[in-house]
TrEMBL record:
Residues 6-226 form the ABC transporter domain. This is Energy-coupling factor ABC transporter ATP-binding protein. Keywords: ATP-binding, Nucleotide-binding, Transport. SUPFAM superfamilies: P-loop containing nucleoside triphosphate hydrolases. The lineage of its organism: Bacteria, Bacillati, Cyanobacteriota, Cyanophyceae, Oculatellales. GO terms for cellular component: membrane.
Length: 226
């Protein structure tokens, strides 16, 4: 069997001894699949994603994520740092010490993958929220990331751009053989994933069929059908 792209084994993380956030948390995402992470407010979803990205170190347990790893934040303005689209996508390649033609080729390939090659010279400030998120994803594609971690990337988008983004990520995962874990509160996005995890008080309490987990989370939150 192929090794999973993401493995979390009995991970515990706390900000202080009286405030455990992740408690013996375990999950696996198979390579080449698109999984979502659900849970009530404060259940530890963002913390888990940050542990997976190496931004936080757990007190115990093991994490194994296939490198390179790309991270997409809720607010793209916290992530896009260069003045133009092309420069921003190229910025992530600095450490790889590529030649100029190699950088151009990586940037072209990545922008084509997210259908934004026509915006290469556009200033970042002139983009819509959905376009900015696609540029953040293009940055990860340019770095040839194996794994994409996305923390509520559609939270600031309108419903049309929201579903455009999730369907585009689904296609990218399938076409490029990448693996993604996507945190969401917007349950209509579950249509697009291969499977889901349900987090409660820092533990994965259920996993598998997205629609079954959707119903379970709605019961937990007392939500009506959307
Ligand atoms: N920097 C921090 N310092 C202290 N406590 C924190 C910090 N960041 C998060 N927490 C706490 O950790 C717990 C889990 O937060 P986290 O953001 O991971 O949950 P979440 O499931 O992503 O929540 P939401 O759905 O509201 O985004 C919460 O109780 C939160 O208050």
């Amino acid at each position: 069997m192929t090794k999973p792209a993401i493995v979390v084994d009995e991970v515990c993380f706390q900000w202080s001894p009286t405030a455990p956030v992740l408690q013996s948390c375990s999950l696996e995402v198979p390579k080449g699949e698109f999984w979502m992470l659900l849970g009530t407010n404060g259940s530890g979803k963002s913390t888990l994603l940050r542990v997976l990205a190496g931004l936080l170190t757990p007190q115990s347990g093991q994490v194994d994520v296939m490198p390179p790893v790309g991270f997409v934040f809720q607010n793209p303005d916290h992530q896009l740092v260069m003045p133009t689209v092309g420069a921003d996508v190229a910025f992530g390649l600095v450490e790889e010490k590529l030649s100029i033609p190699q950088i151009r080729q990586r940037v072209d390939e990545a922008l084509t993958a997210v259908n934004l090659s026509h915006l290469q010279r556009r200033p970042i400030y002139a983009l819509s929220g959905g376009q900015k998120q696609r540029i953040a994803i293009a940055g990860a594609i340019a770095r040839h990331c194996e794994v994409l971690l996305l923390d509520e990337p559609t939270a600031l988008l309108d419903p049309d751009s929201q579903l455009d983004l999730v369907s585009q990520v689904q296609k990218l995962i399938k076409h490029r053989g990448m693996t993604a874990l996507w945190v969401t509160h917007r349950l209509d996005e579950l249509e697009y994933c291969d499977g889901a995890f349900l987090l409660e008080q820092g533990q994965v309490i259920d996993r598998g069929d997205p629609q079954r987990l959707r119903r379970r989370l709605m019961q937990m939150e007392g939500r009506q059908e959307e």
